[in-house]
Design goal:
Number of strands: 4
Structural class: mainly alpha
Number of helices: 7
Radius of gyration: 24 Å
Order of helices and strands: HHHHHEEHHEE
Shape: elongated
Strand content: under 5%
């Protein structure tokens, strides 16, 4: 193989390396790919094109494995978030004064959540997430019923989302600063650290507040006297947060 073709191959490997660098962890496959890439570059510089080609091919294989690993980790992370959200919802309902009125619904939600946990253990991340979301839907239906039936005894109290699911955007991407700035959250980007502190233990890298991924569920702590429940829904009109 001539120098030009080897150079093109190495360029492709570098592109894979940069894509892999976006993974939320430097996994063993990524490390192996980087090591092979360096060996390929060194061989290329020394004019050993056959060796360069071999090392570049190995790097390509390792980077592909890294990408698959990162994808599976992302699915696992989203499934775990969905399970946590469903569990929190069940705990909230069972601890309320209206718990006895919704025994049947709570039992159904618990059964779905149990299925989600079994699927999670079996590493069926997508199926696990779906079951957890079904469990949460049952709980959200209970929340909607109790909210609609509750008398308006305090007009000064507003109800706002307790959870926000991170989404992928081409611009103005989700981060703690932008999420805190949303009127339905705090309406103040400077309160981003409040969100970070509340969700730090659930993050893939707890020491990096910038590393939040699509599908991650952000819990929104209460700021003042507002009620926080349910998950933020785009397009829904929420009341203003009075500080």
């Amino acid at each position: 193989m001539n120098k030009k073709l080897v150079s093109l191959l190495l360029t492709g490997i570098l592109a894979l390396s940069l894509a892999g660098a976006q993974n939320f962890s430097m996994n063993d496959y990524q490390k192996a790919g980087l090591a092979y890439e360096k060996q390929a570059t060194d061989a290329m510089t020394a004019g050993e094109y056959e060796k360069a080609t071999e090392f570049a091919s190995r790097a390509s294989i390792e980077y592909a494995k890294s990408k698959d690993f990162a994808t599976n980790q992302g699915l696992k992370f989203r499934a775990a978030n969905a399970i946590t959200l469903a569990q929190n919802g069940i705990d909230r309902v069972t601890g309320s004064t209206n718990a006895k009125k919704f025994t049947k619904e709570v039992v159904a939600a618990k059964a779905l959540l149990a299925e989600a946990k079994v699927l999670y253990t079996a590493e069926k991340w997508e199926d696990s997430r779906v079951k957890a979301q079904e469990s949460l839907a049952v709980i959200n239906a209970i929340t909607s019923t109790t909210t609609a039936a509750a008398p308006a005894t305090n007009k000064a109290t507003v109800t706002l989302p307790r959870y926000y699911v991170v989404v992928s955007r081409s611009s103005n991407s989700d981060c703690y600063w932008n999420i805190a700035k949303m009127p339905e959250v705090y309406g103040n980007p400077h309160l981003w650290a409040r969100l970070y502190k509340a969700n730090k233990s659930k993050m893939p890298d707890p020491e990096n507040p910038n590393l939040i991924l699509p599908g991650m569920i952000i819990e929104i702590p209460q700021l003042n006297t507002e009620i926080r429940e349910g998950t933020y829904q785009a397009g829904t009109t929420y009341p203003k947060l009075h500080e």
